[in-house]
Amino acid sequence: MTTTANQIAPPTAGAHRAEAASVDEIRAHFPALTRMQHGSPIAYFDGPGGTQVPQEVVDAMSDYLLHHNANTHWQYPTSQETDAMIADSRQAIADFLNSSPDEVAFGANMTTLTFHLARALGREWKAGDEVVITELDHHGNVAPWRALERERGIVIRSVRLDPETGTLDMRDLAAKLTPRAKLLAINVASNALGTITDPLVVTQMAHQAGAEVFIDAVHFAPHNLVDVKASGWDFLACSADKFYGPHIGILLGKKARIVLSASRPVRKTMRASSARGPRSTSSRRSRDAAAAGAIVFRPLSRCYIRAARNCSLGCGMDSAASTA
Fold first, then answer.
1. Residue 106 belongs to what H/E stretch?
2. 269 inside domain
């Protein structure tokens, strides 16, 4: 039996089945959920605004700042430990999204990383080139491209939302993907409505039109098992704070695309640096501490996502930690 992104293969005959954790055991990982409000325990439902953080993530970040805090790429112990920690963090994200660690960059947040990417790509475009966005996209995947519209003279095309269904008008998307389209920048899971737009279908449509694809997976990654290698996406961004990690943005770019860009001297963002992977785009201290937390949320997030991915996207992932 094959499994899809929304199925878990049943155990084989005689296979040991681990006992599910209780609600209290899950909540015990989250100090924020020990809070009492009006004499009752709380449940936190603002998943689109960010999830609560397990104690293990905070401990990992504190341990780095207290015992390993150093600059990178120097020949003394804490610097080498920092290098190793960042490499392990990139590997954790690569495992989580099924990508390569040398395609992973960290940044302050998804919006900041998208601004960096937009400015980098914009250097290759000319006035009249087009970027396609949608009415389902949130500000972080709109403002960076609108800025390029003002700065570079590119044209923004926005795909209509069907208000009756809360889904995109796919005919309008096909019409907006003209030969001048350079990029489809699309949110494949709405953090407002919970609407899922099939990322493989829109990617195929964009590539057939000759456009690259940037996937805003901020609200998709916490609820679906992402497979970057199999998807064909050119770029993807998400935020660890949406799946129990620290407040840090994650940007993936195809290695071939990064290497190509690195050969152009005007392009700085996401430039390859030997085997170290793309340059990160946030301040070093906050980035490194958050990256330390990324190592921890790898096993945590996989476990919780498998348990909660059948929940409604509109409820927010952290509701699973509170009530699952």
1. strand 104-107
2. yes
